[in-house]
Write a structure and sequence with these properties.
Blueprint: H1 9-18, H2 41-44, H3 46-76, H4 86-117, H5 136-151, H6 157-169, H7 172-180, H8 198-201, E1 211-213, E2 230-235, H9 245-252, E3 254-258, E4 278-282, E5 294-296, E6 301-303, E7 310-312, E8 318-321, E9 333-335, E10 341-343
Antiparallel strand pairs: 1-2, 2-3, 3-4, 5-6, 6-7, 7-8, 9-10
Helix pairs in contact: 3-4, 3-6
């Protein structure tokens, strides 16, 4: 009874038989192995291989031309300004976009086409073997030689040279763009070692500049700000700018809130930076610069939606959670004779991510 019951020897024999496995532990069905290799046209026809080589080289040349096209738009069109025509701006943006696209796609598509048409495509199974320390150097050298041989980069100098040219030129547009972010060399009052940090220290805020609502530009009176409310604020005059409006807004935009003054922890030197519990802080997260736009009234927390950095408004927007490492810069404010909220001065430190040294 025990031999025929569930889990007995008879059951084990049936399970082995139904699984298609012999008692010896070997599979009843042989391993079919890899399917037969089907050679490509370029593997059998030298003319097809040469054609594929020319196609890959053309794609690499297209990448080089794309980089050149970028620089034509960047340098030949020239720097834009307040009087630049809209047609010129559209032409420059088109050349910059097309140049960058061709530079990147030419390299990417070229390498993929190279691998699909010219590099070996046979499948293989390499058995794991014990690594011998004394043979590591020889093994590494053999792997590199195999890669060079399979890529055919030694036998096809046209591909090698065009690839080197495309890869060498492709990063240049990015270098030019990042270098253009810093105009320190054009401003005699700034030291070159600041790497443009002063551009984030100085915004449109200044003594007497009124706080206005974003985007309407309506001035804000202290009586308009009730406890628990929050306003997205820009400096007065920002909307009237003809050039550089977005750049200035990206640095100057702030959040305005009103709390119970008894709940504010004010440090020495900041006693007059708020107006009866009304405080203003930079909207630019100190982590990577995302807009801090979520205000939790009950906790008095400001939340960055990108990486959940959280700032405590009652403690001068200090970080209480998340990857940000620095409090949000506070804008000193006061009230003018007409009752409108105005700035006492600019921010006392650079706004934005703490990539730059804060002196």
């Amino acid at each position: 009874m025990g031999e025929q019951g569930y889990g007995g020897p008879g059951h084990h024999s049936d399970a082995v038989e139904h699984a298609g496995v012999e008692d010896s532990g070997t599979y009843a069905i042989d391993n079919p192995g890899l399917p037969p290799h089907r050679p490509r046209l370029a593997d059998e026809d030298p003319r097809a291989a040469k054609k594929a080589e020319r196609q890959v080289a053309f794609l690499f040349l297209l990448s080089i031309l794309g980089t050149i096209l970028f620089f034509v738009g960047y340098f030949v069109i020239g720097q834009v300004g307040p009087d630049t025509a809209a047609e010129t701006l559209r032409l420059q943006n088109m050349l910059l976009g097309l140049g960058t696209a061709f530079a990147m796609l030419g390299i990417g598509v070229g390498i993929v086409h190279w691998a699909k048409t010219l590099m070996p495509d046979h499948e293989m199974v390499e058995q794991r073997h014990e690594v011998r320390t004394e043979a590591d150097r020889a093994d590494a050298q053999g792997i590199i030689e195999d890669i060079l041989e399979e890529s055919q980069i030694k036998r096809r100098p046209l591909l090698r040279n065009t690839l080197i040219g495309a890869v060498a030129l492709a990063p240049l547009p990015a270098i030019a763009i990042f270098r253009d972010l810093d105009d320190t060399d054009n401003r005699s009052d700034l030291a070159a070692e600041n790497f443009g940090v002063e551009r984030f220290r100085h915004t449109m805020w200044d003594e007497g500049v009124r706080l206005v609502r974003d985007p309407s530009g309506t001035p804000i009176k202290a009586s308009d700000v009730t406890i628990g409310s929050a306003f997205h604020v820009i400096p007065e005059g920002l909307n009237e700018l003809q050039y550089g409006k977005l750049n200035e807004k990206a640095k100057a935009v702030v959040l305005l809130m009103r709390l119970d003054p008894d709940k504010l922890e004010v440090s020495e030197g900041r006693e007059d930076w708020n107006v009866d519990g009304i405080v203003a802080y930079s909207k630019i997260c100190t982590h990577v610069g995302c807009p801090v736009a979520l205000y939790e009234q009950h906790t008095h927390h400001l939340l960055c939606p990108c990486h959940q950095s959280t700032f405590d408004v009652t403690r001068e927007a200090k970080v209480v959670f998340g990857p940000a490492s620095h409090a949000l810069p506070q804008l000193p404010i006061t009230v003018n004779e007409e009752g409108f909220l105005v700035a006492r001065s600019d921010f006392q430190e650079p706004v934005g991510p703490v990539y730059w040294e804060r002196g």
